[in-house]
Amino acid sequence: SDLRTFSGDFTQQLTSATGRAGKTLAGQFVLAKGGKFRWQVEKPYEQLLLADGKQLLIYDADLKQLSKRSMDSALSATPLALLLGQSEVENQFHLSPLPDRDGLAWLAAEPKTADAAVSQLQFGFAQGVLMAMSWSDNFGQKSLLKLSNTSKNSTLAEGVFRFTPPPGTDIVQ
Predict the structure, then answer these.
(1) pLDDT tens profile 113-122
(2) At residue 89, what are phi and psi to the nearest 5 degrees?
(3) Helix count (H) and strand count (E) of the chain?
């Protein structure tokens, strides 16, 4: 509840429903109260997800394509909605403690609705700071997100939640 901003680096390991290791994504993130975030994937490809609290932008550098969407209930029962403070945790999830592992204190969050975008959501904390998350999506794909070099409630650079697409970018509404 006291979190205004949260930023750092991330790696995200994807695993298929059959257990086969998939891509590992890496980059930086910035989150802020009011539904604002910047999720910059740098490896293995460049992609930007950006939200200013009203609109979600997804920019694919390889395709030179920018998709614009209204932020709505699509984020309501997702890990991102919880981090942004857009969703009341107790209204969307059943919470229960898990045994400590990998040097982290873990918490399980099971969606209360059957049509949630994720299941088996878990949060790993070190000294009260979020350092890892894991979840499964509706297709059985699993994600393990690890955070590093994190900073809470720091001053953000001007314009961090704005994006001007390069010339020649296709824009999809």
Answers:
(1) 776 677 778 9
(2) -50, -50
(3) 2, 12
